Each structure stands twice: as C-alpha cells, then as structure tokens.
Amino acid sequence: MTVDTDAIAFLYLAFAHATDGALSGEEMRTLAERLRGWRPEVGLDAIGEQIKSTVGRYKQLATREQRLAAANDQATALARTLTVEQRQRVLADLNAIAEVDGTVAEQERAFLDGIRGTLGV
User: What pTM, to 2 d.p., does this model score?
Assistant: First the structure.
C-alpha cells in the first residue's frame, strides 16, 4: 500500500507551525527526519522538495483556522487509508515534533488529542 506522504507532510507542518505560530529549525529538522522515515528509499533532496511543496500549499491558506481545518482534513483522509500501526506512528511522529523544544504547549496537546480522535487511536 502506498502511503500518502503529502498528507502526512501537511499534517506535520500544520502541527509544528499552526499550534504556536512558530517553526524552529529543530522542529523542521525533526519533521524532515520523520517524513523521511516514511520514504526511506528517496534522498534528502526529494524530501526537501516535498517539504517545499507542502510549505507552498500551507501558505496558500491565510488563517490559522484554515490551516488547522486542512490538517484535520488530511488526518481524516489518512484515517481511511493507514493501518492502525501507521496511524500510531503518525501520532508518535507528532509527539516527537512537539517534544523537540523540551515542552509540549497546551495548543499542541489539544491538537494531538483531536488528531488522536480523528485517527481513531
């Protein structure tokens, strides 16, 4: 089964940025590492291009609410196509992104809880 890494990339980016309005270099590196785990057969250049494309789609949405709604739409689509183990992996990746700065903000916890429900895990 082919995994929709475009949906995963958007979900990770929205989580990293829209929850607190900032995206640190460490968060971006963790996001890239986690995304690469879904596509180990490709090089870093391909991952970089995918992230660049995802950032472009993300920036087309003007408000935080639109970005979070789009992230939820991506999670809904992933819930229909990923196995339970893959959905748990998505949550583990989101947790890793949240923890990279040493604290998990309340907005990040709320997002994680919502996505956990959407993914059904």
Answer: 0.94
CB atoms within 10 A of CB 5: 17
> Burial code of 29-51, b = ≥16 C-beta within 10 A, e = fewer?
ebbbebbbebeeeeeeeebeebb
pLDDT in tens, 45-92: 999 999 999 999 999 999 999 999 999 999 999 999 999 999 999 999
C-alpha distance from residue 6 to each of 2, 55, 66, 84, 119 (Å): 11, 11, 17, 19, 16
CA distances from 64 to 40, 58, 71 (A): 31, 10, 10
Coil, strand or helix: which one is 1? coil
Three-state secondary structure of 47-114: HHHHHHHHHHHHHCCCCHHHHHHHHHHHHHHHHHHCCHHHHHHHHHHHHHHHHCCCCCCHHHHHHHHH
Q: Which of 74, 77, 96, 88 is nearest to 116 (CA)?
A: 88
